[in-house]
Amino acid sequence: MQHLYNITTLVSHPIAVDWLNWMQKEHIPGIMSSGCFLEFRLLRLKDHDETEGITYSLQLLAKSRDVYEAYLEKYAPALREETRKHWGEKAISFRTLLEVVN
Q1: CATH number at residue 86
Q2: Rounded to whole angstroms, how far apart are CA atoms 95 and 39?
Q3: What is the pLDDT of residue 32?
Q4: What is the pLDDT of residues 37-65, one digit of tens each?
Q5: Which structural domain, as residue segments, surrounds residue 76?
Q6: What is the pLDDT of residue 84?
Q7: Alpha-carbon 61 to chain mean position
Q8: Does the predicted model carry a pTM greater than 0.85?
Q9: DSSP characters for 36-101?
Q10: Dist CA 22 CA 15 (whole Å)
C-alpha cells in the first residue's frame, strides 16, 4: 500500500525566495535520488495568515511503508541536518505520514 510523506514548512519571508530555489534545485532532487519515492509535489498553502512566513507542503509518494522506513533510516538524518545548517530556525518543518486509501 502506498504512503504519502508530507513535510510542511513555515519559511520566514527574508529567505523565502532562496529557500524555494534551494528546494527545487538541490533538496528535492537529493530526496528523489534516494530512489525511495515515486513522485513528489511541492505546494504552497493559500488562504491563511502569512504574517509569520510562507507555508509550503512537500508531498512524497512512497510505494510502501517499508520503503518510507528505509528512507527515514538511511537518508533522512543527513538531509535534515543539511536543511538545519542552511536555514536554521528560519524554516520550521513538521512531518506526517498518510496512508493512501483510494
Answers
A1: 3.30.70.100
A2: 17
A3: 98
A4: 999 999 999 998 999 999 999 999 999 99
A5: 3-99
A6: 96
A7: 11
A8: yes
A9: -EEEEEEEE--SS--SS-EEEEEEEEES-HHHHHHHHHHTHHHHHHHHHHHHGGGEEEEEEEEE--
A10: 10
Is 4 strand, coil or helix? strand
C-alpha closest to that of 91 among 21, 31, 34, 35? 21
- 545548517: which residue's cell? 85
Q: How many domains does one find in the chain? A: 1
> What span, in angstroms and rounded, lies between the C-alpha atoms of 81 and 65?
23
- HSE (side-chain half, CA atoms, 13 Å) at 18: 9
Cell of 63: 510505494
Query: Mean per-residue pLDDT for 83-97?
Result: 97
What count of other Cβ atoms lies within 10 Å of the Cβ of residue 56? 20
Percentage of the residues of the chain whose pLDDT score is greater than 90: 98
